[in-house]
Specification:
Elements: H1 6-20, H2 25-95
């Protein structure tokens, strides 16, 4: 994330030693380490929560898609059943014997 080399770290340490002083530097370093660790844990926690929310949204979307698919399947089955019901009287009409008056000679 940050490109911090040896010389940059040495310069920051020297400035901190001069500003804070040698007596308070260990306490300051501990405090800085504590807050840095706390920020990292917080960032990790936020990242994890975001991942969980995205996963939950994806799961909801897939459930909605499957429900829509099921509804379409039900509509298709109902349409097929209705077509079969309509075709039964048509088949009965086609299978009736034709009388001799129906044919032209």
């Amino acid at each position: 994330m940050f490109d911090v080399g040896f010389w940059e770290l040495s310069l920051v340490s020297l400035v901190a030693l001069l500003v804070v002083g040698p007596e308070r530097l260990p306490k300051f370093a501990r405090l800085a380490g504590f807050w840095l660790g706390k920020m990292r844990r917080t960032a990790t926690s936020v990242r994890q929560e975001i991942r969980q929310e995205l996963y939950a949204d994806e799961l909801k979307q897939s459930i909605e898609d499957s429900l829509q698919h099921q509804e379409l399947k039900n509509i298709t089955e109902q349409t097929g059943a209705a077509l079969k019901d309509i075709s039964k009287p048509m088949e009965a009409f086609d299978s009736t014997p034709k009388s001799s008056t129906d044919t032209k000679e």
